[in-house]
Amino acid sequence: MQATGFPAPLRLRSFDRARDAWPLDPAIIHLNHGSFGAVPAPVVAHQDALRREADLSPVGWFPRIADYVAAARERVAPFVGAKADDSVFVPNASAAATVVYNALQLAAGDEILVTDHGYGAVTMGAARLARRFGASVRTVELPLLAADDEIVQRFTDALTPRTRLIVVDQITSPTARLLPTKRIAEVAAQRGIRTLVDGAHAPGLIPDAASAAGGDWWFGNMHKWPCAPRGSALLVTEASDRHDLWPLIDSWAANEPFPVRFDTQGTIDATTYLSTPAAIDFVEQEFGWSEARVALTQMADAGAEAIAEALRPFSDEEPLTPLPNPVASMRLIRLPQGLGATREDADELRMQLLDETGVETAFTSFRGIGYFRLSVHLYTEESDIAAFVDRCIPAVLERAGMRAPHTLTLS
Ligand SMILES: Cc1ncc(COP(=O)(O)O)c(C=O)c1O
Q1: What is the CA(36)–ligand 1 centre distance, in A?
Q2: Residue 84: burial class (beta carbons within 10 Å; 0-12, 13-18, 19+)
């Protein structure tokens, strides 16, 4: 069997191979950027230098933090198509959802709509919000391959006079689907219903992710695809009641308006926020973000096809799941029958295969079916996919009670 169509290893201006720029363990195969990101060495160095500056003179550093964070907002907000005055830094997507949930007032009998592709922790937060007010959460079911029109229709049909809030992902976590959040939010707004868009995966993958998303509030992780240090996310809103949003940590700027009150959160390590411009600049200067999205698409397509080809002889169903409007860097490949049927099973498989094969992967579960969610970034090379095929597929097949495949030759 031959797999073709792989791009050559990418080169950056300052690095011989793109992968040399990421201080990832070379003994491990990294095919799960989507879960926790990966930080390029120059960005790590930038953050180290900032931390050193703080350590050398804490009094010179901490009283100035709010100004530094405000300056970082000015730099980072345009990357997601937002204005700095509409944007605040929060540590992560979960925090952004919590900030919004904390500000909302519902009444008994009100309803929040979520989807069956939603991120579990964000959906759990919606459930807690509902419980606080005697409201309820209802799940809109979206078939895995539903077209945009059908998705919008399913939301439209699900709205009731008691619906107050929609929580919907721009790019879904278990299924890597790009959802038409702008259209959903427009339908909702016509009925006075508000929309929170979970864009955790969107920055870097969707140009101007926040403005493309629509909705009343949007948040996105900078520590995923833009490769910022972990602990950097943006919450963006133009809502007229945004002055009801408060940081999770009340501090000295609590009496300031939005967004300034988020720039001060006590004595914290804000170097994650302050290093985010360096991460955005790194990809832009070394490669270009538009070019990066094209390169990621080529690698994701070639990688997914090679993995699917290795699984086909053992699958009753076509393993390559051709998502409508695929995002640049993630693909979904169906696991053999019975594997990863629940989120817990999928998570366990991820850790077992890492320990057994030295490959970092993401397995997900949707409606009782397990998937391999392939993630690639600029550091991904054909040999990583070959390693997945050689090491992980036999292990996966063995678990499914099947024999190991023939060796796959990648050209
Ligand atoms: C869609 C989605 N929402 C929220 C999150 C939570 O992100 P964090 O762990 O950075 O809070 C994730 C993380 O993968 C996600 O994929």
Answers
A1: 9
A2: middle
Q: Is 272 touching ligand 1 by the criterion CB < 6 Å?
A: no
Nearest 5°: the CA angle 47, 51, 56 is 145
Does 119 sit in the ligand 1 pocket, CB within 6 Å?
yes
Residue owning the nearest CA to atom 10 of ligand 1? 92
Can you give the CATH number for the domain in which 315 is found? 3.90.1150.10
Rounded Cα–Cα distance for residues 257 and 67 (Å): 15
Averaged pLDDT for residues 22-29: 97
Whether the full predicted model's pTM is greater than 0.85, yes or no, is: yes
The rounded Å distance from CA 319 to ligand 1 centre is 26
Q: How far is CA 19 from the centre of its chain?
A: 21
Give the Å distance between the CA of 94 and the centre of ligand 1.
Answer: 6
Ligand 1 centroid distance, CA of 405 (Å) = 34
Q: Among 96, 106, 161, 166, which residue's Cα sits nearest to residue 138?
A: 166
- For the stretch 297-355, pLDDT in tens is 999 999 999 999 999 999 889 999 989 999 999 999 999 988 999 999 999 999 999 99
Nearest to 167 by CA among 127, 201, 202, 206: 127
The residue segments making up the domain with residue 393 are: 2-30+288-410
Most informative mutation of 122, 124, 205, 273 for ligand 1 (most atoms within 8 A of CB): 122
| Ligand 1 atom at minimum distance from 96 CA | 11
Mean pLDDT of the chain: 95
Which whole number is the average pLDDT over 373-395?
97
Q: Are residues 179 and 71 in the same domain?
A: yes
For residue 93 and ligand 1, the question of a CB distance below 6 A is answered with yes
Do 243 and 385 sit in the same domain of this protein? Answer: no
At 320, the amino acid letter reads L
Asked if 337 and 239 sit in the same domain, the reply is: no
User: What percent of the chain is modeled with pLDDT above 90?
Assistant: 93
Asked if 262 and 122 sit in the same domain, the reply is yes
| Domain contains 37 | no
In short, whether 92's Cβ falls inside 6 Å of ligand 1 is yes
Structurally, the chain folds into a number of domains equal to: 2
